[in-house]
Amino acid sequence: MADASKYTDLADYRRLVAEMYRRARQPDLSAEVRCERFRAERDALFGAHPQSALSPEQKSAFHGLRYFDYDVSLRFGLPVDSEVDPVTWEVDLPEEGLMRLQRFGKIHFTLQAQPVTLTLFWVLGYGGGIFLPFRDATNQNETYGGGRYLLDTIKGADLGREGDDLVIDFNFAYNPSCAYNFRWVCPLAPRENWLPVPMRAGEWAFPGAL
Question: Residue 41 belongs to what H/E stretch?
Answer without folding.
Answer: helix 31-48
